[in-house]
TrEMBL record:
Gene3D superfamilies: 3.30.70.3000. Its cofactor is Mg(2+). One of its GO terms (biological process) is tRNA modification. Adds a GMP to the 5'-end of tRNA(His) after transcription and RNase P cleavage. This step is essential for proper recognition of the tRNA and for the fidelity of protein synthesis. Also functions as a guanyl-nucleotide exchange factor/GEF for the MFN1 and MFN2 mitofusins thereby regulating mitochondrial fusion. By regulating both mitochondrial dynamics and bioenergetic function, it contributes to cell survival following oxidative stress. Residues 168-248 form the Thg1 C-terminal domain. This is Probable tRNA(His) guanylyltransferase. Homotetramer. Interacts with MFN1 and MFN2; functions as a guanyl-nucleotide exchange factor/GEF for MFN2 and also probably MFN1. Its EC number is 2.7.7.79. It comes from Bemisia tabaci (Sweetpotato whitefly). It catalyses: a 5'-end ribonucleotide-tRNA(His) + GTP + ATP + H2O = a 5'-end phospho-guanosine-ribonucleotide-tRNA(His) + AMP + 2 diphosphate + H(+). PANTHER family: TRNA(HIS) GUANYLYLTRANSFERASE-RELATED (PTHR12729:SF6). One of its GO terms (molecular function) is magnesium ion binding. The lineage of its organism: Eukaryota, Metazoa, Ecdysozoa, Arthropoda, Hexapoda. Residues 302-321 are annotated as: Disordered. Belongs to the tRNA(His) guanylyltransferase family.
Amino acid sequence: MKVLSLFAGTLSKVVHGANSPLRNFSSSVMAKSKFEYVKGFEEDRKCLPNCWIVVRIDGRSFTRFSDVHKFEKPNDRRALELMTRAASYVMEELKEISLAFGTSDEYSFIFRKDAQLYNRRRDKIMSTVNSLFSSAFVFHWTSFFGFVKLLYPPAFDARVVLYPTDANLRDYLSWRQADVHINNLYNTAFWTLVKKGNLTPQQAQERLKNTLASHKNEILFKEFDINYNNEPPLFRKGTTLVRKLVQTPPDNKLKQFIIPLNVDIIGEEFWKENPEIIGMKSIQIYSKKGDEVGYMVSSKLPTTHENIEPTVPQNQEPSSA
């Protein structure tokens, strides 16, 4: 029996030893099964080189989501700032995003032309952006909505679009900001007619049918004494996220921040003040102008040793939801 036991031990070392050729042969064979051929059906589409990569996420069925969670009409600042916080987290994680622009339930993320994230694999980039944004939206919900309960999980769809020239990229961003103005002017007029004009939604819709921007402005000003141009820039212009270096107290040390701006990005002024975006240059030092910036998000992610509990706005009572 001792002889058989010694033989079995020796055989085990030959087969399973670290340097055993049989062990290496066995593992290499086991690593590939007869089913592995199915990987051949997978697509590995890559974004064309030297193109701006734009990933746009959009809320899925957010009309229902906003109704269920009783968002303020026509704009809910809490929801807009939550969207921006989630977008900031995406930029914190993915350093090759040079700019993001958002409004309502959508956000566009602009990757540098020379970005190499996931070797420019389209599906990996899109799914990662969507996943980071969606999870951050849920994670930070109570920081902006306090005791308002999240009644069901939100969802976002996403797409990738490539723009080969700087002009194409600027036109894309101009298109998105122009849509902000068109949609917000309509919504402001619509909900003013409903809330202050005591019209039903159907009546308000009929009243605004085929009206131009000048007509909507006239309705707001003459009937309700509302100057649309005095509405908050957040609602009229959307939010643009940029990376900047900011001097921080007490030693004025430069730290990188992601800064939300509610400014015009169609004209030339923004691009002259932020040449590093198109030029893909080093991040510049930022000087705050008055109340232009609502808040800044540090690019430093929280660690397990830091307090990352969500904050609840003061003087807010729990909702019955």
